[in-house]
Specification:
Protein name: Carboxyl transferase
Number of strands: 22
Radius of gyration: 25 Å
Low-confidence stretches: none
GO molecular function: transferase activity
Shape: globular
Helix content: 25-40%
Domain CoA carboxyltransferase N-terminal: 1-234
Number of domains: 2
InterPro entries: AccD/PCCB, AcCoA_carboxyl_beta, ClpP/crotonase-like_dom_sf, COA_CT_C, COA_CT_N
CATH class of the largest domain: Alpha Beta
Structural class: alpha/beta
Largest sheet: 7 strands, mixed
Keywords: Transferase
Number of helices: 14
Amino acid sequence: MSNRKDCLAAQRISRLLDENSFVELGSLVTARSTDFNLSQTQTPSDGVITGHGLIDGSLVFVYSQDVSVLNGTIGEMHAKKIASVYDMAMKMGAPVIGFLDCAGIRLQESVDALDGFGQIYAKQAQASGVIPQICAVFGTCGGGLSVVPALCDFAFVEKDGGKVFVNSPNAIEGNRAEKCDTSAAEFQSSETGIVDGIGTEDEIFAKIRSLVSILPENNQADVYTGECTDDLNRACESMENMRGDARYLLAEISDGHVFFETKEDYAKDMVTGFIKLNGMTVGAVANCTEVYDETGSKKEEFEPVLTARGCDKAAEFIAFCDAFEIPVLSMAHVTGFKACKCAEKRLAKAMGRLTYAFASATVPKVNLITGDVFGSASVIMNAKSIGADLVYAWPDVKVGMMDAKLAAGIMYEGESADVIEKKAKEYDALQDSVLSAAKRGYVDLVVEPQDTRKYMVAAFEMLYTKRMDGPFKKHGTK
């Protein structure tokens, strides 16, 4: 593999890729600068191993920072090697995977190193929406380097040794690492929206391999990424009992019960991830009101409302799917918006992002209503009016402006309780019934929960050849 096969950076590549598939590029590159005693320092591969290999037979390009060489710091040639990997990956239409373990910018190279940072950022921006970008943080990733995982499509952090930060915990006024380690994997995973998962190195390698097998190789590749051996008409008997846990519902309808969740610790009230339907990769966005553990016990519960974090998480995921022509399935169960002072600061902007993401996406879009949906929140969650191609609903859900009793109380304020109760029943039948919504064309079909899988398979099969052109514009502004 390399002239330094024993280094940790090289070992990580070997553990990720198919056996003996890695071909190193630029192994003889060393630091060009000789300032500040660099001429006396050995810099093999200039602190980063780059090349290409295979994951389950599919081509990927890889770079892995070597912390044993100048602490893995980024200098001129180090950055050029990473930029070169991106150039080759875009030519070949293959994903880029980066392993970050770096003390930051190389001080001895100053502006040359700064220019190197800019080159990496520029290549990531060029590659965005063209090839999947995946990174894993196994050591330090601070300051300007933290932009790299933020620009990647998917990022993972080693739970014990991985550190991601813009400012170190001790540099934040009033804070110390002992008080709140803002660089820790757990904090970054739950608070920033950058991290898709944390774990041991081996767990992260397994997640990356699974992710690569699910994703198209580039933005022009097919979304049929595997063969289906699962029964396309398989009944999902327990769907109704677990309707609050979107993670369970998505796993239940997917081929072989495969569900790859993204940003799993962030905004848990909104679930995003990938499922397979008859071998086709489908992106899923779902409201979540309950989380169950492996034993079936409820461990978390959320209101059926949209939150700022949940909207941002879903919008970013939909944008990725749209860029790579991955169909989108939404599961809607939402009755309003988070009501608190903190949410009010960001919620409207986040709602706009999510609305724009659904409305502007040209990929096949299917909405499945699994719980009550009320008000404009239900529109934002992929209603027909903002572009859903097909809308399905389970038979016992409510679809309307608001809960019937609340509506009757507003419309007949001051009337007796009997009158309000009577009008609430009328409103429920005329305005909140799923059948009423179906009669108006807002719901295409009412399906039984156990039949969900076969209808979703059929829907996306039919929509596979969808083509849609919008008005000419350079890009949107959200």
